[in-house]
Automatic annotation (TrEMBL):
Gene3D superfamilies in the record: Hotdog Thioesterase (3.10.129.10)
Record's protein name: Thioeseterase
Pfam families cross-referenced by the UniProt entry: 4HBT_2
């Protein structure tokens, strides 16, 4: 089940951070901390890989609220979409461990915003995800320039490079499952 209460708590905490003046620009990294709960673990008593992806939603939510994107989403009646992702797991996260999650934008093009997220325990990286995300209006992805303009960051450019650019190219070559 989706952790709606945890999600709402993340929004409330991020809004409180904004009220305290602890905001972010799109150029900064969001960090949140939480504990691995019993509802997050699998039969091996470690965080379930599906839950990792769900919890990454919380990091993107904190980033959106604290960067002002959340306000624009409400004001403009925009939505968010994840159009692709890749993840690597390196270290297990056990029940009750304190986790630090980092979220940052690592590139964008005309249509997509590329976000890197990672989870850390005791200063060691446990997982890292790269996501292709977009802002939507009426179910269609809108131009990144429009999003940046709404946030008064029109002059910012961060073209995908390195592994992000390589992932974009390689993902475009990936065949879509055939119709049966």
């Amino acid at each position: 089940m989706y952790p709606f209460i945890r999600y709402a708590s993340t929004i409330a905490h991020a809004a409180l951070q904004v009220k305290k003046g602890n905001t972010l620009t799109f150029k900064e990294t969001s960090e949140i901390t939480f504990r691995c709960r019993l509802t997050d673990i699998d039969n091996f008593l470690e965080m379930n890989n599906g839950r990792v992806l769900t919890l990454y939603d919380m990091g993107r939510t904190d980033f959106a609220v604290r960067s002002g994107l959340g306000t624009q989403l409400l004001r403009q009646r925009w939505g968010l979409v994840v159009a692709g992702s890749t993840i690597q797991y390196r270290k297990r996260i056990r029940a009750f461990e304190k986790v630090t999650m980092k979220t940052k934008i690592v590139g964008f093009d005309e249509r997509w915003i590329y976000i890197e997220q990672s989870m850390w325990v005791k200063g060691k990286p446990c997982s890292s995800a790269l996501l292709r995300t977009g802002v939507t209006k009426g179910g269609k992805v809108i131009e990144t320039a429009r999003v940046l303009a709404a946030l008064d960051q029109s002059d910012w450019q961060l073209p995908p490079s390195g592994y992000v650019a390589e992932w974009i190219v390689s993902d475009a070559d990936r065949p879509w499952p055939p119709q049966s």
